[in-house]
Structures are given as C-alpha cells and as structure tokens.
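Need a sequence for this fold. Nothing fancy.
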C-alpha cells in the first residue's frame, strides 16, 4: 500500500513545496487546488521531477467540491493516510479591527474556518480506516507588534481551538486519527506579499519542518506544534514570549 497525502492549496507556496518534498520520498500526492489551470501546471512541474501526483479540484468556498473530492478519493485512493489543510486566505492584512469590513472578516472565516471544518468532517471516515493524520497549517494564537492582521488572526485562532476540540473528541471516542496544528514560523510566500527579513524562513525550510512532523511516529493529538527550526529569537518575536 502506497503512502498517499491530500494537500489543499498545493499549487503554490508552502503547499507545493510540501508536495514536492513528500513526493521525492515516494509519496503519492493528491494536489488540491481550486483553479484547474494552476492545479494542472503544478502537477506538470512535479511530474517532471518524477513525483506521482494528480490534481484534485477543491475550493474551500464551495463545500460541494469537498464532498465530491472525498467521494472520488474514497473510491480511487482509499489508502489516503494524511490530509494537510494548507489552503487559506489572508483577508485584508492592513486594517485595524474597527476598520475591518464585515464582509472581509466573513470571507476569511468562511475559508479558513468553515472550509477546513468541512474538510475535517468529510475526510475523517477515510483517514480513520487508515489510522491517518490531519495537519492544519496555522499560526500562534498570540499576535505581536510585527504581525497582527485582524481577520487572519481571528480565523486562525478559531482554527487552533477547533483543532484542540477535535483532538479531544477523537481521543474520547477512540477515533484513530491524529489531528494537530503546525506553526512553521514566518515563511516568505505571496500570502504575506513575499515578506523577507531575518525572521522569515524560506519555503523549503518551512515545508521541511511540516514534512518531518508528517513522518514522525509521535502523537500530537489536538496540539498546535511550533516548528521554527530552533530559531528561539524568531519564536520570541512571533509569539511575544
């Protein structure tokens, strides 16, 4: 049985790099992306590197695409072992709370919270059969003076609590799925307009931290695991501790 992973939002950024690194280790990659053209372009890049990969249409704003993907994967890839909930949107990162538009906050919550909630619910039955894992890409709960986008932080704080609650529920119900959040630290991507300073990590480094957790043999049930590559100064700046 092959190792198979579904990664949402994997046509670019850290999601694409996680797909590449796992693919180079022999994993079968199900590359989730909402846009067909960009999804297939990413598939072609990985296939050129020898990765076994296919595009799966998933749009976190369209819950029916999540259900359709689960139905297909249950039939074609019942061996699915890992779901990486990487897809998300930043919302307006430059406004103060009182200046945030309700529509922007709602749009951010719809993707980063409701979309991921639906993915967790829908794919748990498949992963349960394989004693699988769900990894939610996230950020620390505490904002800081360097990075404090209101809508984005609100949505990720909700995601962190949701991860914790699912973990408690899985444990009490003896559901053999390990769900946890991963904080890779500040990673330079288009989500943050390619922010680049001494506290930021490369996409390769950030993805490498996630891959190590995917492959480890430890249970992280309900936790939010911080992996900054040992950069204590970065941890202090980002978390405020």
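Here you go.
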């Amino acid at each position: 049985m092959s190792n198979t992973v579904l990664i949402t939002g994997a046509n670019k950024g850290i999601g694409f790099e996680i797909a590449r690194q796992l693919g180079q280790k022999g994993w079968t990659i199900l590359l989730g992306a909402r846009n067909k053209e960009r999804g297939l372009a990413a598939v072609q890049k990985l296939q050129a590197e020898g990765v076994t990969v296919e595009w799966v249409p998933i749009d976190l704003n369209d819950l029916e695409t999540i259900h359709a993907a689960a139905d297909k994967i249950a039939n074609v890839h019942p061996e699915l072992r890992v779901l990486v909930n990487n897809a998300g949107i930043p919302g307006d990162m430059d406004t103060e709370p009182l200046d945030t538009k309700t529509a922007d906050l709602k749009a951010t919550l719809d993707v980063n919270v409701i979309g991921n909630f639906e993915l967790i619910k829908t794919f748990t039955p498949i992963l349960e059969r394989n004693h699988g894992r769900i990894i939610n890409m996230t950020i620390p709960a505490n904002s800081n003076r360097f990075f404090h986008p209101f809508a984005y932080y609100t949505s990720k704080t909700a995601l962190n609590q949701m991860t914790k609650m699912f973990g408690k529920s899985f444990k009490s119900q003896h559901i053999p799925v390990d769900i946890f959040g991963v904080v890779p630290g500040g990673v330079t991507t288009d989500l943050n307009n390619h922010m680049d300073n001494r506290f930021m990590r490369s996409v390769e480094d950030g993805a490498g931290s996630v891959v190590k957790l995917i492959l480890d043999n430890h249970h992280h049930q309900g936790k939010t695991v911080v992996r900054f590559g040992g950069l204590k100064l970065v941890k202090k700046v980002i978390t405020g501790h």
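For context: Residues 229-241 have pLDDT under 50 and may be disordered.
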